[in-house]
Amino acid sequence: VGKVIATQSISLDGYSAGVKAGRDNPLGDDGERLHEWMVGLSAWRERHDMDGGETNADADAIDEVFANLGAVIMGKTMFVTGEDPWGDEPPFHVPVFVLQHEPHDPIEKHGGTSFTFVHEGIERALGLAQHAAGDKDVLIAGGADTVQQFLSAGLIDELQIDLVPIVLGDGRRFFENLPTDLRLEPIRVVDGPGATHIRYRLVR
Amino acid sequence: VGKVIATQSISLDGYSAGVKAGRDNPLGDDGERLHEWMVGLSAWRERHDMDGGETNADADAIDEVFANLGAVIMGKTMFVTGEDPWGDEPPFHVPVFVLQHEPHDPIEKHGGTSFTFVHEGIERALGLAQHAAGDKDVLIAGGADTVQQFLSAGLIDELQIDLVPIVLGDGRRFFENLPTDLRLEPIRVVDGPGATHIRYRLVR
To answer: Measured between CB atoms, which of B14, B167, B178 is closest to A178?
Structure first.
């Protein structure tokens, strides 16, 4: 069986979104600075059907996540805000499980991505995703509150923090409302020009 | 002329001290966990006249700071709480400039450490320290509020964050009350078992 991994971009002062984050503004004011390290990369642009872009150590950190990917879990807001921009061929190329309260028929897209809607909670979503992934990894893609739920429930094996060298000053803090006895062990770092990607193993 | 550098241990959730930090409890409740990566190291123990200890990548991060050190600046609390434990041969082995409002005669210790008290502000302390350091580096040793003052004034060339894989939950936040247009560029990472040491260049 594969690992359950999550990645999260945070600012140096610990924010995963700026102020006024919500469904219409998922990263909050100024929060798009958290993703600047990513959007210029060829690794990201290819997955979004765009040409060009840079290749650097930040790209290695993305490639590593996708290299052994078997399934994805995401929250409803990430799906709702992403569905349009992702288009007919979303960048996942694996089954995606969306957490939402309302039942909904599955959606098949091109390129191997499907969306299955799970209203029975995070353990059920994880069970379905692990079954779909086989011996590959399951990625908890976001948003931050979804990653927090899985972390609090002790369901994550490895958390990658993409530490972005900016100070947001205010917003939504990622390491809030988490157990303070959370034990993390740094297992490797990818030292990119746009962010420092630290992979932590969660110690049970 | 050398660089002006600062190092700061912070928790994953951005705290440089736990709650109730003060002169009698400089790291606050539970805050000693921020320094656990350091105190078991031979690099730290040697400087404090103790034998044994571990050698690992965390030690390299300490050695790197001391390798080109010419002078140190610290706040009054760090001096007051450190003077006794440091003993007759403090671990700096260079001139140390202490920021405090009250004038005080210099103190000479063994092993090349002297303490000079500066009541005319941080620029004056930096001028004296750079003169003493010559072409070597000046370290802003702490506490966190002293590092913040130098950061806010734009006087630091390189900031090393020693990111400790713990969640404190509450306490004194390091990246607070700093300009949000602070521009930091990660220039190298030392990937230690006890902390991830990220060196940032401050971009003017």
So the answer is: B167
